[in-house]
Amino acid sequence: MHALAGSEEMVQATRELFASLSAQRAELPKASARWRPILRADRLVGLWTVDPGVGASSFFIRPAARGLGVGDDVVEQLAERGHDLLLPVSSQALGYFEERGYLVLGVEGGALRLRAPTRVENRRAAASVCLFETGTQQVLVGQRLTPPWPGYWAFPGGKLDPQEPALLGGLRELREETGIAIQNPEVLLQTRVYAGGAGTIYAIDNFCVRVSELYEPELRLPELRPYWVALDRVAELRPMAAGTRRVIRKVRRMALAEPPLPL
């Protein structure tokens, strides 16, 4: 958000915001004194606001921009800044934020306050690995067979052992869940994502590792059914863990040299 959007477009986006709140029979959170534009490629894709006094933010993604990962980008950047979120009490999006590691604190000033995952105490550390074969543009992803996300597509990974470095833990989980052992990994990208599941908040470090061949995974191990999938098709798999989808977007941006959404 380095420049102000055109006034007419800001007016239209504000109308859409009020229409959305009206449909939810909700009032504006108290943090909404000044709404700022969210821009992507010079398009006004949403609005956000922050109340420094309470350290909480609110945001709105325009209907035409939904489903493109804009909300995930905003949530991630606000979380990294340590901003809690204020939602209308009647919001239908609560599950979306809980899946991304936000913790419900309660009602504050007529709005629902969610604690940013970066501020949640007692998070569980975890790691995962995205093997990326750059020649064929394929990644290794699998369908989980065990809790907390059975049936979901995700990268090989899991909880870290005490004092275990994240990369070593991710490679250990890769070996345990796929039978693939990587020596001297070439890490192209490291991404921290947060996820909520079964009452636990996970801080997951994902490592995108370049490989020069499509290693054959073991398909009879008990935790994951891994497969190589084209990078431009992998996001179509359903259901998929929210953190996995966020990593895939970042890997695709890296492969296409696309800039991140500024906030």
Describe, in short, the structure shown.
Helix content is 24%, strand content 34%.
Q: What's the rounded overall pLDDT mean?
A: 90
- Unreliable runs: none
**How many whole angstroms does the radius of gyration measure?**
20 Å
Percent of residues in beta strands?
25-35%
| Helical/strand content category | alpha+beta
Distance between the termini: 5 Å
How many helix segments? 5
- What is the H/E string? HEEEHEHEEEEEEHEEEH
Number of strands: 13
Helix content: 10-25%
Oligomer category: single chain
Q: Sheet bearing the most strands, described? A: 7 strands, mixed
Give structural notes:
- With 263 residues, the protein is of the alpha+beta class.
- It has 5 helices and 13 strands.
- The protein has helices at residues 7-23, 70-80, 94-99, 166-178, 242-256, and strands at 36-40, 43-51, 56-61, 84-88, 103-108, 111-115, 124-133, 138-144, 153-154, 157-159, 186-197, 200-211, 224-230.
- The strands form 2 sheets. Strands 7, 8, 9, 10, 11, 12 and 13 form a 7-stranded mixed beta sheet that branches. A 6-stranded mixed beta sheet has the order 1-2-3-4-6-5, sandwiched between helices.
Blueprint (SSEs and pairs):
Layout: H1 7-23, E1 36-40, E2 43-51, E3 56-61, H2 70-80, E4 84-88, H3 94-99, E5 103-108, E6 111-115, E7 124-133, E8 138-144, E9 153-154, E10 157-159, H4 166-178, E11 186-197, E12 200-211, E13 224-230, H5 242-256
Parallel strand pairs: 3-4, 7-12
Antiparallel strand pairs: 1-2, 2-3, 4-6, 5-6, 7-8, 7-10, 8-9, 8-13, 11-12
